[in-house]
Design brief:
The protein is α+β, with helices and mostly antiparallel strands. The protein folds into 2 domains: 281 residues, 2-methylcitrate dehydratase PrpD (Orthogonal Bundle), CATH 1.10.4100.10; 129 residues, 60s Ribosomal Protein L30, Chain: A. Helices cover 50% and strands 8% of the residues. It is built from 20 helices and 8 strands. A hairpin with a 4-residue loop joins strand 7 and strand 8. InterPro entries: MmgE/PrpD_sf, MmgE/PrpD_sf_1, MmgE/PrpD_sf_2, MmgE_PrpD, MmgE_PrpD_C, MmgE_PrpD_N. Belongs to the PrpD family.
């Protein structure tokens, strides 16, 4: 039975020198990817709403609000910076059969704590490794989606552990922090069912914020229920059901995370890559398409294919990036799927609104079995008015753990999404600092995220 005692022991056992080179490299890739996505989300409406609230709650503090010279407390900087990394839906994902969380939701909490503590880059990577490992273990062994809870219910635990690591909590403080976080922050799945709204992209920021706050409370002497998992009316009884996790101090779960190539929900990546390839190869005219059929796995059908409410009524970004019909239609028309696809005017244009109604998404049991075995399969048929049908089959996509992005691809993604906000030299300096993070300090990195 998993306990706060065992989790605390794991957190304290993680050391930079015990991380394989491949793990260190993937952790640094996740940092660079997260920073790029966050910078790309600056000035977006929903993060600005969070920023305005942060200013009211915490107009000053030890931590940067990324992309500016403004500062805030650890929890409020975590809230805003995580909202940035999450809002575009371009973040990483951990692929487990019953749950697909986004471990990069933990990065900003660890960095905020590291900035406040003056942590080294090595300490930062240790703590991020802790968070990724716990997030992955919970997703794989204690999925909560089918029990009505959102995956950020896991995030608050992993963020607490990562924050506690970099804040230097001792064994009992870690137990208390995890107990506080896991008791008080269990998010409902309604966030991602039926009508989807902007909270979908901010729920993880709230969870990460509360994880950092729980770690701070424990450091200052607050006690929490250290039997939170196994106790009467505890987490296993109410939230998850019985489970066992066995986190590895080598933090290898990061190797099982994927990096998104397209600005789209995780389960759409193979299908989008496939439809773009097919459209380009066959030079398909969208105006001549009579039907698009996608055969996919159970999770994709459930979350973005209509299993938790219609995905054909699409008018906002929050609805569009969780609608397979919209994403496939837009990708076929544009031969790409970038953040531009979620502009309100683009979403409401007649071409994509008409085509999305001709998209049929079906679950295939064999594809579900293949997904549970580690693939992300998709079979797409595009039929035209003249009676021709074109097919493409995918087992994974560029960025899947079986086909991970190389450093040059992560750098290219960073360069593209940051755009002209920073100059070429400044972007190169950020990339170089992350690439050499174990030899740098957290504050070296944060100083580069001012206006540039």
């Amino acid at each position: 039975m998993t306990t706060t005692d065992e989790l605390a022991e794991f957190v304290l056992a993680v050391e930079y020198d015990g991380l394989r080179e491949a793990v260190r490299e993937e952790l640094k890739k996740r940092v660079l990817d997260s920073l790029g996505i966050a910078i790309g989300a600056l000035d977006e409406g929903t993060p600005e709403t969070v920023r305005a609230t942060v200013r009211e709650v915490s107009p000053d503090g030890p931590c940067h609000l990324w992309g500016s010279e403004e500062r805030a407390s650890i929890p409020e900087a975590t809230m805003y910076n995580t909202a940035l990394t999450r809002y575009l839906d371009f973040m990483d994902s951990f692929l487990a059969p019953g749950e697909t969380p986004h471990p990069s939701d933990n990065v900003a909490a660890v960095i905020a704590c590291g900035e406040a503590e003056g942590a080294s880059g090595r300490e930062l990577l240790e703590a991020i490794g802790v968070a990724y490992e716990i997030q992955g273990e919970l997703a794989w062994n204690a999925p909560v989606r089918d029990r009505g809870f959102d995956h950020v219910t896991h995030t608050v635990i992993s963020a607490t552990a990562g924050a506690g690591k970099v804040l230097g909590l001792d064994h009992e403080e870690l137990r208390n922090a995890i107990g506080i976080a896991a008791t008080a922050n269990n998010a409902l799945r309604v966030t991602r069912t039926e009508g989807i709204n902007e909270w979908k992209g901010v729920a993880s920021a709230h969870a990460a914020r509360n994880g950092a706050y729980a770690a701070m409370l424990a450091r200052n002497g607050m006690e929490g229920p250290t039997d939170v998992f196994e106790g009467r009316k505890g987490w296993q009884a109410v939230v998850s059901g019985p489970f066992e996790i066995d986190p590895d101090p080598g933090c290898g779960r990061v190797l099982e995370t994927m990096t998104k190539r397209y600005v789209a929900e995780t389960y759409a990546q193979s299908a989008i890559e496939g439809i773009v390839e097919l459209a380009e190869r066959e030079e398909i005219d969208p105006e001549e398409v009579s039907e698009i059929r996608l055969d996919t796995f159970a999770g994709a059908k459930l979350i973005i294919g209509g299993g938790e409410g219609s995905r054909y009524e699409v008018a906002t970004k929050a609805e569009a990036d969780h609608s397979l019909p919209y994403m496939l239609a837009a990708a076929l028309i544009d031969r790409e799927l970038t953040n531009d696809a979620y502009d309100r005017e683009r979403i409401r244009r007649a071409d994509v609104q008409s085509l999305l109604k001709r998209v049929d998404v079906e679950e295939d049991e064999e594809l579900t079995e293949r997904f549970e075995a580690g693939e992300m399969p998709a079979v797409i048929d595009i039929s035209t008015d003249e009676g021709t049908t074109y097919r493409v089959e995918k087992s994974a996509f560029a960025g899947h753990p079986r086909n991970p992005m190389e450093w040059r691809e992560i750098e290219a993604k960073f360069d593209t999404i940051v755009g002209e906000r920073y100059g070429a030299d400044h972007k190169a300096t950020i990339v170089g600092t992350v690439r050499d993070l174990e030899s740098r300090e957290t504050n070296d990195l944060l100083a580069l995220l001012d206006s540039g």
